[in-house]
């Protein structure tokens, strides 16, 4: 187990620089393998992708941070400030998430999909806090990878009802947020609705599938939907708490992106659920 935890943490440390590039390049729709510099467009150097060493680069990706809310700058001309601490923070967070998921889930076949969920949550958190939006270029590839990984487990373990549970979870979570979006578009963005497809897919799978004597079985579709709502409640509670704290610091009228809380709430629910065999 300890070897698996260390391996996933180290893998997270390697993934961190790639997430930093994504943070820097995806929101402005630039090619992923070019980074923002004073010349804006220099190719990515190998040193930019080396963990730890890249923290001391002159302009590492994801350290040039937009200032203020997009609502305050409708023309898109937001100032940038360099925050060099963000490069190590993103890398360390990615490593910690990978190690925590491995320590909790263990050798369950769900682990690779869980890592996709965890590292996508890190990426969504940073981008949403910076730009107040969740790009499709983040959500849909992560959703496709999750469907593929969960599909492999479903076919290998002959669990077609497990796939149904994941689908129900995705539709239930996205449907709930879609209603909230219709009621209050200013408070719930459509990017959150699309993110909920990814989060509900994982919650529905984890809630509806368990391991009994080494074999994966489906507990039930009601369990899948029920666990999805548990994850949604955790994310909503985190969003309320973090939103209140954010507004205390930034001012009463400051907008707060809800996507990071929803993603973190899902990861917390998965960690609390533990191994499928628990």
Notes on the structure:
By secondary structure, the chain is mostly helical. It folds into two domains: 1-106, no CATH class; 108-278, no CATH class. It has eight helices and six strands. The strands form three sheets. Strands 1-2 form a two-stranded antiparallel sheet. Strands 3-4 form a two-stranded antiparallel ribbon. Helix 1 (2-25) runs parallel beside helix 3 (111-131), helix 3 packs antiparallel against helix 8 and helix 5 runs antiparallel to helix 6. The longest helix has 30 residues, at 221-250. The chain is globular. The two termini are 16 Å apart. The model has no long low-confidence stretch (mean pLDDT 87).
Biggest sheet record: 2 strands, antiparallel
What strand order characterises the main sheet? 1-2
Helix fraction?
55-70%
Distance between the termini: 16 Å
Oligomer: single chain
Radius of gyration: 19 Å
Q: Compute the number of helices.
A: 8
Give unreliable regions as ranges.
none
**Average pLDDT score:** 87
